[in-house]
Write a structure and sequence with these properties.
The protein is mostly helical. The chain has one domain. Helices cover 54% and strands 0% of the residues. It is built from six helices and no strands.
Length: 152
């Protein structure tokens, strides 16, 4: 029985070593900051940086384990998808799902449970929801005014 356990552990270890060969998940690129939203309050930005920026900005802090497959694959995928949906560093492009940001925080869909550094207290979560709503409302209003000005 012990022999079988050691053999199984050895196979798992070898497989973990072999998956390190796969190059996906270690291209940790942080493109330059283009434009952030006009935050309604510095506290909103602070909470957003803490809970959202690692996946939803070009200022990702890549933890050490983001270099180890297969965890690196998950982290890379989360960052790519997150940046595509809402990117707080590229507010100069249309953010299709920005209006949903506060709702995902409110429903506890974001930040995901498996990213513990993004955990928020109830008060912080409420402040972030209010701040995101105000920031995105202000940004939407600003965009609409710019579009009206361009039409003239």
């Amino acid at each position: 029985m012990r022999r079988r356990i050691w053999w199984t552990l050895g196979v798992i270890f070898v497989l973990l070593l072999l998956v390190q060969i796969v190059p996906y998940g270690r291209a940790h690129v942080n493109p330059p900051l283009r434009r952030e939203p006009s935050w309604d309050d510095p506290e909103t930005r602070r909470l957003t940086v803490r809970a959202c920026f690692d996946c939803h900005s070009n200022q990702t802090v890549w933890p050490w384990y983001s270099n180890l497959a297969p965890i690196s694959w998950l982290v890379q995928q989360d960052v790519q998808v997150g940046r595509r949906k809402v990117n707080f560093s590229e507010w100069d492009r249309r953010q299709e799902e920005a209006g949903e940001s506060a709702k995902t925080v409110e429903s506890r869909t974001m930040p995901p449970w498996y990213y513990p550094w993004g955990r928020l207290s109830s008060d912080e979560r409420a402040a972030l929801i209010r701040g995101l709503q105000a920031t995105i409302r202000n940004e939407t209003s600003r965009e609409q005014k710019a579009e009206e000005r361009d039409k003239r």
